[in-house]
Amino acid sequence: MKTIDFSYFIERYIAAEMDDSERKWFEKELEGNSSLQVEVKLRRKVDAGLIRHDIIDLRNKLSAIERERKEKLVATGTKRSSGMRFAAAIAALMLLGGGYLLTNRSLTNEALYSRNFRSYQPASVSRSAEARPTDLQKAIELYERNDYVTAASYLKSYLGSNPRESEAIMVYGVSEMAINNFPEAKASFRSILNNADNLYIDVAQWYLALCYVKTHENNEAVKQLEAIIPSNSIYSENARKLLRKIK
């Protein structure tokens, strides 16, 4: 049985990107799990340290600019009023600098992945209360409860006898992404692309691109994103934005 790698969920929790159900699930996992609590605290401390380092670096650079300006004023005898205007501009820039760094600091592949990954929402599985649940229906229910490990197990069994069921492959691939089994996830999305199932090509390309981002295969990610953009699918705009950040 695979164990959950919580690194993805820690990213989403700290960034406040979880919906209510996911957040409640994660906070329940935190209860009584001292190692997970330590990991969350450490990640918050590291993020705060990076932000402070960037702000300090900006302030040091601005201070150097101000010293150079004062030296030039002394040498040229420039009027005080222009110096005051320049100093005011520097002060405003320093105040804004922290906010700018928070939103524009270059993002790691892991951060880009975390900000763009959302669970695929399956639509085609019937949930008739009278019918005995199939392996696929059980898998979908587990998947929607964020039990990705068990869902992946059910889906793998189902796909053994239904190897071309595209939506099951999609859900299986995303389940494997959620537990950081990226080789298996990539293979799933590639199988959809190889089958040329037009209903799922854009979706498979998007999730495959995210897999490549997470595994630092940026050239491959770029290929998938460039294929999505002209399709005018629901992923086109997200693909365009992500492409600008990783190129």
Features:
247 residues, mainly alpha, Serine Threonine Protein Phosphatase 5, Tetratricopeptide repeat, 12 helices, 0% strand
Q: What is the gist of this entry?
A:
The protein has 247 residues and is mainly α. It is built from twelve helices and no strands.
CATH class of the largest domain: Mainly Alpha
Number of helices: 12
Terminal Cα span: 37 Å
Order of helices and strands: HHHHHHHHHHHH
> How many domains make up the 3D coordinates?
2
Structural class of the secondary structure composition?
A: mainly alpha
Structure description:
- It is a single chain.
- The chain has helices at residues 7-14, 20-30, 34-76, 80-104, 109-116, 135-144, 148-161, 166-178, 182-195, 201-214, 218-228, 236-246.
- The protein has 247 residues and is mainly alpha-helical.
- The protein has two domains: 34-106; 132-246, Tetratricopeptide repeat domain (Serine Threonine Protein Phosphatase 5, Tetratricopeptide repeat).
- It is flat, with a radius of gyration of 24 Å.
- The two termini are 37 Å apart.
Draw up the topology in text.
Elements lengths: L6 H8 L5 H11 L3 H43 L3 H25 L4 H8 L18 H10 L3 H14 L4 H13 L3 H14 L5 H14 L3 H11 L7 H11 L1
Helix pairs in contact: 1-5, 3-4, 5-10, 6-7, 7-8, 8-9, 8-10, 9-10, 10-11, 11-12
